[in-house]
Design goal:
Number of domains: 1
Number of helices: 5
Strand order of the largest sheet: 1-2-3-4-5-7-6
CATH topology: Aminopeptidase
CATH architecture: 3-Layer(aba) Sandwich
Order of helices and strands: EHHHEEEHEHEE
Distance between the termini: 25 Å
Helix content: 25-40%
Length: 142
Amino acid sequence: MIRPYIPSDISRMSSIWLEASFLAHDFIPRSFWEGKESDMQHVYLPSCLNYVYIEEVTGEVAGFISVNDGFIPALFVAPSMQKRGIGKQLLDYVKRTHAHLVLHVYAKNHQAISFYEKQGFRITEERTESQSGEQEYVMEYP
């Protein structure tokens, strides 16, 4: 089930973000992500429209998507719940209310790039992400 987040979800969302970031972005030091966790909880997530996927058996947040004026700053699924279609469901949920979507993805995150391309996104720009110094792609839908 997908629903709008409630403030009590933020701790779990932040935990998913951190765990999934370590896994998906192993080319960036863990300390980089750890240093951003407080901002994620107190600045980034509260400033976005957030939707959470609730796992049916446990009732826990298993993934989330954040949207800010058509920009998707976050789409993360708990590593133990990946490869079950949760990310696609979250993305499809947001596509229903947004005609145009934009996101950024690290060029080294091949799995995410492939996922987004399968969902109809295309790379429109390549640039250097200022905080990490890593190359990233801007991807747009449709």
